[in-house]
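Lecture 7 notes: from sequence to structure.

We start with a single chain of 759 residues. Read the sequence below before looking at the structure.
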Amino acid sequence: MKNILILIFSLLIVNNGFTQLVTITGNVSSKKEPIEFANIFIEENERGTVSDKNGFFEINRVRPGNFTLRVTYIGFKTKEIELTVNYGEDISLEIEMTPLDIRGNEIVVTGTMKEISRSKSPVPVDVFSPEYFKMNPTPSLYDAMQNVNGVRPQLNCSVCNTGDIHINGLEGPYTMVLIDGMPIMSGLSTVYGLSGIPNSMIERVEIVKGPASTLYGSEAVGGLINVITKKPSSAPIFLFEGMSSNWLDHSLDLGGKHRIGKNADVLTGLNLFNYTNPIDNNNDGFTDMTIQERFSIFQKWAIQREEGRLFTIAARHLFEDRWGGELNWNESFKGSSEIYGENVVTNRWELIGNYQLPTTEKLLLSVSYNNHYQDSYYGDIHYEADQRIGFAQLTWDTEYGSNSIMAGTALRYTYYDDNTPATASIAKDGVNKEDEVWLPGIFVQNDVTLSESHQVLIGMRYDINSRHGNIWTPRFAYKWSPNVKNTIRFNAGTGFRVVNLFTEDHAAVTGAREIIIEDELSPERSINVNLNYIHRIYADNGRFTRIDASAWYTYFDNQIIPDYETNSNQIIYDNLIGFGVSQGLSVNSNFEFTDGMFLMIGASYIDVFSKENHVRKRPILTEKWTGTWALGVPIKNTGVTIDYTGNLYGPMRLPVLNDMDPRSSKSPWWSLQNIQISWDQPNRNYQIYFGLKNLLNFTPPSNSIARPFDPFDRDVSFNANGEAIPTTGNPNALTFDPSYVYAPNQGIRGFIGIRYMIQ
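Now the structure, written as tokens:
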């Protein structure tokens, strides 16, 4: 009997213990938007769960005690909540997450031209915040792109160091650069599009790989980069960042906001870059890095209106003076044939406005205008150009049942004038004539949610080019999410691009090559398909893994590929009589750990080629393999973080001048790696960082510039066809040529910087 009583009493105690276990519930959100797939984990109990599509979570059978609840989600700062759990007292939490962690804000606009959760977008969009780029701080967004898988900053000239952005192996002109959705970086500004944008103004960068012409028109063939600037209302009160290296290059970034009157918030950003220390480590007599002075100021106004309607105005001015060449060059030799130098002076200003009409329907009027003036000398060749682009767009955004409809009409005007055959050829009589192109268009897109798992997007755009006539660009996308861990996206569409050679290819005016345009050039057209797969892994210990894989295929018709090889003294432009292809595979993996460590690894296989007369040829300066990585390791309770970033590029074909050129026709495998140590003092609003760039001290070969000792080809003999011929003093029949470039000339260098912010 006694034993029975003891057993009953013990059972009552156990049962009472179980009945006293606590349930913790809550909602995870950011800016009133629920966060799906957030990881919620109790460290002490090693128990956790994942939030549903409404941001709701529930953890049952939690024993009483003092615990730390950790909430993680990629793209947001880790949230830690100290909890005291008492017997019989269930807990309900409202958890607000702070965006802009390593991967950026998960709200995107680029893929569909409207704000939508990245996980719900039928179009795959890569998102990067300033926090990610801080792992390898750079003086411009152009340089920061080296840490993005499938995206590569490509230098096009060893002397003036101008460059462009390659996406999936395609040349820079195939990439459209936007600021707040406005296509203002094109044509003449292609090689400078991502330089001089104040880092303090950047909210995030969204990248779409593949055609987006249905929404954005010409030039969005290979992909687009959309720089989203901060909202004045949510920007820091003041932000300062200064950085220097032992090469004596200095960059300064300032930003701040203030209120004017009762209804206007103003955000101002300033970017300065200065480098005045000529260095020639490869001993070729030329500067390894161009001397630069750059000044950029950006201001954005947000006007508060009734019912929260949007009204913003932004303006930016950029001035840059850069030169590269022989070390003893100065401005007194500008345009002369005594000492070789390339001097590029750029004056550019932009205006962007967005105004939501006071109607019951959601109608948004967006306008932009920019003027880009360039006065430059390439040796004794003077290149002067003026470009003006005006853009206006009216969009209608509405919801109807399961349909999300976006429709709009756009008008783009491009004015271009220079002192080269680019404009003279239009008149056919050698007389200069400005180039003016009008491009009106209409588009419509419907994003249909068929069910929780299935989503379809269909779109169509119609443009009338004043020179080339009617252009149709359809688009189709399908998204399937069979469960919370897997998402499959299929995208297909067409693209088109109207080419202006001289505004896009500065190799056309640098060096000593003659420009040959075979025929009147027709617009390039493309057909693209893309398959994207995302797999998420949520571990019970709070760790999160995301695998993002894509396969793509793009077919080009009428493609224009500059021919550097037929004649070493010419660049020949013509439409390809055949076709071009860009295809490949890309994989990105993100790992987030409970201790705050972050790891991202990406790799791409890129196969780009053209086929003409049954001959397959790979374009120059196009890598087959590329890889990137970023590792962030915080040291607990110290405020110290160690960041290790880098990239790896496989061999690419290089523009040798002829079969006798002693330089290699292929680049080696090469890598740029960086390490940084940062010390963050959040309570004091500042951060100090320092480190090393280019740890392996990789630089291209010292003979990258052909015949640097004879930049005006005084000692070169030519035949009747204008081709260089072998002589005693020039046995390899070379001419001066700076186009043999695939990597920067800056070797290993130390850097130090400081950030200060008042929130």
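Residues 2-96 form a domain with the Immunoglobulin-like fold (CATH 2.60.40.10). Keep this in mind for problem set 3.
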